[in-house]
Design a protein that fits this description.
Blueprint: H1 2-92, H2 99-115, H3 134-146, H4 154-159, E1 162-164, E2 174-180, E3 183-192, E4 195-200, E5 203-208, E6 216-221
Antiparallel strand pairs: 1-6, 2-3, 2-6, 3-4, 4-5
Helix pairs in contact: 2-3
């Protein structure tokens, strides 16, 4: 009887030890599996975070690029609008006449005024409209042809206007005669080809500048 009890007790102890060993082995296996799973999960989470971070960066870069392009497009549009406005302004603005054209038209007007008096008599001290002396005639032609008021005498007309050389004389300039530039007694209007229109003893005529009875001393341009 005692032997049987002892055997049973030993068998129970062995079963208990075996059961405990099995449980311990299971726990160890589960723990290692949990560690592996935890590591895998951690890696997956890291990868997801990295992807998200990369995506956010890309999105930010795209946003920056797009926001940079917009002002450039606005600038282009602004430039285009400016160009169109300038073109319209140029079309709308009256075209400036050249200096040569304005001078030519001014001379034409002065010459029309002067030549309309051809044949009118010379009278000392007369200023028109039916008779003239030399400076009265130039004064009349400029007043009615160019709306310019000249001084009364030939000497004063020379003194008060811009002097030009014979080389640079142009149509419409005044040409002066006398014994010197300080003693001027006659004036006419230069009309080109070494000729002038003036009032002299024979009345208002066109004649050559360089003749024996005239001594040319200078030219002047009315501003």
């Amino acid at each position: 009887m005692n032997k049987t009890k002892t055997k049973k007790t030993i068998m129970l102890i062995m079963l208990t030890v075996l059961a405990m060993a099995t449980l311990f082995a299971t726990d160890v296996t589960n723990a290692s599996a949990n560690k592996v799973n935890h590591k895998k999960t951690h890696k997956v989470i890291k990868k997801k975070k990295a992807k998200k971070h990369h995506t956010v960066k890309k999105h930010k870069k795209k946003a920056k690029k797009s926001s940079y392009k917009k002002p450039a497009a606005k600038k282009k549009a602004h430039k285009t609008v400016k160009k169109v406005t300038r073109k319209k302004a140029r079309k709308a603005a009256p075209k400036k006449t050249s200096h040569k054209k304005s001078r030519k038209s001014r001379f034409s007007s002065i010459y029309r005024s002067a030549s309309s008096k051809l044949g009118h008599p010379y009278v000392y001290g007369a200023v028109g409209p039916y008779s003239f002396d030399c400076s009265g005639f130039t004064q009349y032609a400029y007043r009615h042809g160019a709306h310019k008021n000249l001084a009364r005498t030939a000497q004063m007309q020379y003194n008060t206007n811009k002097h030009v050389s014979r080389k640079h004389v142009k149509k419409g300039d005044l040409v002066f005669f006398g014994s010197s530039r300080r003693n001027i007694y006659h004036v006419g209007i230069y009309i080109g080809n070494d000729r002038m229109i003036d009032a002299q003893n024979r009345g208002v005529v066109t004649e050559k500048i360089h003749v024996p009875w005239w001594h040319e001393v200078g030219y002047a341009r009315v501003a």
